[in-house]
Write a structure and sequence with these properties.
The complex is a heterodimer. Chain A is an alpha+beta fold. Chain A has helices at residues 96-109, 136-150, 177-182, 209-238, and strands at 29-33, 41-47, 50-61, 74-81, 121-131, 160-167, 170-173, 185-192, 197-201, 204-205. Chain A has a five-stranded mixed β-sheet with strand order 1-2-3-5-4. In chain A, strands 6, 7, 8, 9 and 10 form a five-stranded antiparallel β-sheet that branches. Classes of the chains: A alpha+beta, B alpha+beta.
Chain lengths: 245, 226
């Protein structure tokens, strides 16, 4: 508990965080849908200083064939960090951490995506982190869900991601890299805003039951804010002309 | 909510609530009818559906599709029908019930790369969709230009009761075979008519969301004919 020692003041006496935000404020999020020509669906998301590109293929043939399922389609996710996404060059080979994040994002999207409609096929989601600044799994999840909608894959709801956490003994929303390194806890949340269901919940650090409740509460609030931006990204791409048939 | 009929929706958005039937691209969540894709919601006669604006082609029974022969085994051909599933064309559909793999040469009838107009017989998703080429307007396509458009824009190309496509056909003197999977074959005796028909189709593909598209296409067809 307590996180790493650091010179950075995570929270000043006025309740302002190291990057100038208030405790219950998310970073600036921008999303653009349909940025890649060759993928069936795509999205580019900037979540503060995180920059992530997502491409979706499918439904398509499953290769290798033995992975296919006669009852349902399958979802495959690949989260990858570019070598230049962090300060020190990152080895481009998939690390333990990337394999884990790919798995949790897949499991966070599965309740939303209606794969039963496409038996014996696969939907592939490729998430490429171009620049990382803490909270990439939530940002990648948010972008992936927009890219899936852009590809026209049926979904029960969009999935929005946002983290809550604890730094300098205060509960904060949308943990950035410094707060993640030096803070006390990080709680990423994936949330389906219309169905009001949580699809991703991880906790790194220690929280009291009371703090945990607070984190969930403001985390869901953050997800709802992110959802509005997802919605706008899709509306901008498909309905920008504003005309109805 | 019954007043407005067509609305832009995204996945998870509530279209309406109450006693409606949830049809194409919608699901029932408690009282609400929710969209599962990006599209235009349409409430009609107590049923709710969403017309998709994106996504690939999903085979449906009785759809006319245009396919390209991809390969064959000793009993059937497989055809690429611009979908995540391939069309299965049994050899007995072409040769009749007394087909024998030893005496009949399948490549003589349909070779790899040949285009066919086919109808989907069975698309129950438990196996690859079964297609047939026996029937009126079906079979091997020998001539014409293949044009690919988004499968979602096929209804727009056809227009209300075929108005749009009839207009293109009559003013350019061409024939257009439309596959529901977004593949079209345009043929004409007159090379200029052929080019103009293809241009008109491309215009519809680009401008599918515009309201008075029929007028625009008509204008284009007339201006070029002078």
């Amino acid at each position: 508990m307590g996180g790493r020692d650091t010179d950075i003041v995570l929270l000043d006496e006025n309740g302002i965080r190291c990057d100038g935000r208030k405790v219950n404020e998310t970073r600036k999020v921008t999303i653009k849908a349909g940025v890649l020509k060759n993928a069936n669906g795509s999205a580019y998301i900037e979540f503060g200083d995180n920059k992530i590109l997502v491409g979706v293929y499918g439904p398509r043939d499953v290769h290798p064939k033995h992975m296919s399922d006669t009852d349902t389609g399958i979802l495959r996710c690949r989260y990858h960090m570019a070598p230049f996404s962090v300060g020190e060059r990152k080895n481009p080979a998939p690390s333990r951490r990337e394999v884990e994040i790919s798995k949790v994002i897949k499991e966070a999207l599965e309740p939303a995506v209606m794969l039963k409609e496409f038996p014996r096929t696969a939907v592939d989601v490729y998430m490429e982190v171009l620049q990382a600044d803490g909270g990439t799994r939530c940002a990648a999840l948010t972008g992936a869900s927009v890219a899936l909608a852009d590809a026209g894959i049926p979904m029960r709801d969009l999935v929005a991601g946002c983290a809550a956490g604890k730094a300098a003994d205060a509960v904060i929303l949308d943990v950035n890299n410094e707060e993640d390194q030096a803070g006390q806890a990080d709680l990423p949340i994936g949330y389906m805003p219309n169905l009001k269901k949580i699809t991703l919940l991880q906790l790194d650090g220690v929280l009291t039951p009371e703090e945990y409740k607070q984190c969930i509460e403001i985390g869901i609030d953050g997800c709802n804010q992110v959802y509005e931006i997802q919605k706008k990204a899709l509306q901008d791409k498909f309905f920008a002309s504003g005309e109805k048939q | 909510m019954t007043g407005e009929r067509k609305r832009h929706v995204i996945p998870g958005e509530v279209i309406t609530s109450g006693s409606y039937r949830a049809e194409q691209n919608t699901i029932q969540v408690g009282e609400n009818i929710v969209s599962t894709i990006v599209g235009l919601s349409d409430i009609h006669d107590g049923s709710v559906r969403v017309i998709p604006l994106t996504g690939g082609y999903m085979p449906k029974d009785d759809d006319l599709v245009i396919g390209k022969i991809a390969s064959h085994s000793s009993l059937s051909w497989t055809a690429d029908i611009n979908s995540c599933y391939v069309g299965m064309l049994p050899a007995s559909d072409v040769f009749g019930r007394d087909y024998s793999s030893s005496s009949d040469d399948m490549t003589a009838k349909l070779a790899k790369g040949d285009l066919i107009a086919a109808r989907i017989v069975n698309a129950d998703m438990t196996r690859d969709p079964l297609i047939t080429i026996s029937g009126r307007e079906l079979g091997k396509i020998d001539s014409g230009e293949l044009v690919k458009i988004s499968p979602n824009k096929v209804p727009r190309l056809i227009g209300k009761r075929g108005s749009m496509i009839q207009m293109i056909e009559s003013s350019t003197n061409s024939q257009v075979t439309i596959g529901q999977n977004g593949l079209l074959v345009v043929s004409s005796e007159d090379p200029n008519g052929l080019l103009k028909a293809i241009q008109a189709i491309e215009l519809i593909e680009e401008q599918a969301h515009v309201a008075n598209l029929t007028d625009q296409v008509n204008e284009m067809l007339e201006s070029k004919s002078e």
